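Milestone 3.1: sequence recovery, worked example.
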C-alpha cells in the first residue's frame, strides 16, 4: 500500500467519465461480522469486505440481508474496550454463483480520511 493515500473524488479522475461514485474505492480483505442494527437479539454473521470507500463498502456474506436493512459492521479483531463499529444501509444484495451474497452498503455517516486509513491498516 502506498505510504500516502490520497482520497480524491471520482470527479478528480479524468478516466471516470461514466463513474458516478463520489469516493475512490480501495480493495479490502478485512474479515468482518455484521448484524441488523435494529435488534441486539439477532445473531452476527461473518462477512468479508471486498472494497471500502469513505461512503460505503461491499461485503461478501453467506447471509442475505434485504435491501434497506441497517447493519452494524465490526471486525473480529475488535476489543470490547475499543470496538470500531460502522453503521451502513444495504443498498443491494446480489447472489453469487457460490451461493453467497454481495452486499453493497452505504455508511450512514461517511468515514473521515483518518477512519478510512485506519480501516485499511487493520487488514494488514
Amino acid at each position: 500500500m502506498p505510504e500516502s493515500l490520497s482520497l480524491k473524488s471520482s470527479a478528480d479522475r479524468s478516466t471516470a467519465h461514466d463513474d458516478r461514485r463520489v469516493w475512490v474505492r480501495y480493495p479490502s480483505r478485512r474479515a468482518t461480522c455484521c448484524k441488523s442494527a435494529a435488534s441486539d437479539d439477532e445473531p452476527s454473521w461473518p462477512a468479508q469486505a471486498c472494497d471500502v470507500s469513505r461512503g460505503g463498502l461491499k461485503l461478501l456474506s453467506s447471509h442475505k440481508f434485504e435491501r434497506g436493512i441497517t447493519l452494524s459492521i465490526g471486525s473480529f479483531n475488535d476489543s470490547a474496550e475499543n470496538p470500531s463499529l460502522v453503521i451502513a444501509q444495504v443498498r443491494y444484495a446480489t447472489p453469487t454463483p457460490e451461493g453467497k451474497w454481495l452486499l453493497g452498503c452505504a455508511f450512514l455517516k461517511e468515514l473521515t480520511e483518518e477512519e478510512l486509513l485506519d480501516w485499511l491498516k487493520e487488514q494488514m
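The longest strand covers residues 86-95. The beta strands are 26-27, 31-36, 45-52, 56-61, 70-75, 86-95, 101-107.
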